[in-house]
Every structure is written in structure tokens, then in C-alpha cells.
Description:
By secondary structure, the chain is α/β, with parallel strands linked by helices.
Amino acid sequence: MNVQEYMRDLGRNARQASRQLAAATSGDKNAALLATASILDASRPALVAANAKDLESGKDKGLDDHLLDRLALTDSVIDGMIEGLRQVAALPDPCGEITDMSYRPSGIQVGKMRAPLGVVGIIYESRPNVTIDAASLCLKSGNATILRGGSEAIHSNQAIAHCIARGLDQVGLPSAAVQVVSTTDREAVGELITMAEYVDVIVPRGGKSLIERISRDAKVAVIKHLDGICHVYIDDQADLDKAFNIALNSKTHRYGVCNAMETLLVAKAVATQILPRLAEAYAEKGVELRGCEATQTIISASAATEEDWGTEYLAPVLSIRVVDDMDAAIEHISQHSSAHTESIVTENFTRARRFLAEVDSSTVMVNASTRFADGFEFGLGAEIGISTDKIHARGPVGLEGLTSQKWIVLGDGHIRQ
Length: 417
């Protein structure tokens, strides 16, 4: 296979399909999503069989447990994919939405219309359910998409792609609206991120090295986040039962995800009350604790280094720091956060509002687990990724983040004087 020619064929087909999708009705797009959901449900044995090949290959290659967890297509994961498709179908279609219309002194009307980005390239690792998340959001928002999954999920992704193609075919939409790259050759990524004539935006979902490479080499716009160094701050006016549950869930609900807490900050006034209880619970879960000097005087923990404060573990490891107050917590977050998700636990409304205003991350929470930083939980149906950028899309990227606004002008023979 000539990878360059293959990828450019995908690009040309995607560009043509994007024009057809721009003209598709919401009814057509929804019908394709619902058809794909039904096909997935009926194809469970084939999906599980394909996934079993990937899992076996992953074990042979020595993939870590958290990577194997992300790779697995269990019944509950397939249920989530189906529900995601149905939720996206039920969401309002942003395409064609007209806002901010107003008359100008000249007599023309000026406003904005929401439109698809065009062709979206998505590069991801391990999690085959991303194939459905990405396809559904791009399809509903009127974008064609080229999906390049990791080599470790090649069989799973091809099986899912077959279901999507059947769903598109049922309603007469072009199969090139969603194309899954069939080669595992790494050269395909290099081609995809430099085909500016065919691809309008790239969304990388994977490890830091992948995202750094794409951010460095891409010739098209990139929607991304590098790390998920998420914090929970337990204030001295927190409800400690809430704090216990939030701190435990944020870390131990799942380890290998970008919205898991990696650093726990605790106000010194309540540290001796909450940390021993949390340490016992973390020990039961097998979580390794690394703490500052003050933390080590309260619970058993190894010494946290400066590097720990800036590390995304994606594993049962947690850094803990005792801080003087909320000002110190915010200062720590500003220095070490990756601008993904931060949460404060407090019953003080004023402090909660200050935290929301002063913490500069894509998602900021009050009295909630960081694990809620997710497009599905936010009601987006699914997400194409998390953006920590400040321009265009920020936080979980759903339908609206996959569109832009263009100016529209309505006149009746008006000319400029």
C-alpha cells in the first residue's frame, strides 16, 4: 500500500462527503445514527470477537492493565456506545442555527449562522468506543471525519466501522462521511495531519507524546489537551463526608482516564480530621500515596517530589499537599495544573464563587467529583475530546464545538453608498 496515495484518497472522498453532509437534513443524520445504534446492538457477537483479537494481541505485547481496560469492548461499553448514538440523535442540530440578527442603519440585516467545520481528522489510542463517539458527533454536526485509531484496536475499530457504514447506507448518506483508516502504518498519521487541502481540523486523543507530536507537526488546526493533572481542594469549611466521597471517587473510580484526580489539596485546619480516613480508604484500594512534609506527619506516605506535582499518573498513585488556605490552593493549581479540571469542596458560597472565577481551567467544579468532566455527563451525548485551549472550543467538545459561525447578511437590493 502506498500510504500517501491511500490517505489522499481518503481526504478527497471526505471532502466530497462533507459537501453532501452540509446539505443533509437533521432527519437524515438522525436516521443514520439510530440505524447504526440498532446495527451495533445486533452485532455484539462480532464486535466482542473482533475485540478479543485485540485484547489477546495487547496482552502478548505487554500492554499495561489500564490500557487493556481502555481497550475492552464489554457489554456495558457497547451499551454506552448505543446510548451515546441515541442521545446525539436526540440533541438539537446546531447546523443552520441563526442568531444575533439585527438591522443596520443601511437597512441590511446582519447575523450569524452556525456551520460545520468540514472535515475532521481524529487520531486516538486504545479506546475503540471513541470511534462511535467521534463518528456520531461529526455526523450530527455535518462534518465528514477520518478516524485513525491505534494499532492495538485495529480489529475492533474495523468491526465498528462496518456497522457505521451499514447505518449510513441505510439512509442514503455517503459512506465516506465516516472513514476509518485501515492501515496501522505510522506514516498515515503524518499524512493526515498535513493534508490541509482536505482536512480542516485535527483532534488527537491519546498519550502526551502523541499529542505533542501532532501539535508540533500538524499543518491544520488542532483541538487538544496534553495532560489531565486534575486537583481536588478540600476547604476548611467543607462538609467532610462530602469531601471524603468526592476525593475517593475522583481518584479511584477509574485510574487510566484524563479526569481522574492526580493531586489532593487539603486545608491544614481539617487535614488531621480527613486525611487519616482517606488514607485508610486509599489503602484498601491499593493507592500509593506521596505527600508533602505536613502530609507525612499525619499519615503514612512517601515523600512527594516537585516532579510529582506535575505528573499525570493514570495509575493508583496520588499526590497530597496540605495547604494553608484557599489562596495557597489556587496558587498551587495555577503553577501545576494542566488546565483540565479542578474541584473545590466547601460549604462557603463566597469561596466557591471565588474558586470558579479565579481557577483558569477548562472545567471548574464545586462539591463534585472530577470524574464528571465528560461530554456524556455534561449532556453532550458524547464528546470528541477535551480542549484546554482558550480559542474556539474549551472543555468537553460536543456538537457546538464541531461547528463555527459565519456572518450572514440579508438585503433586498441594497448597495453601499
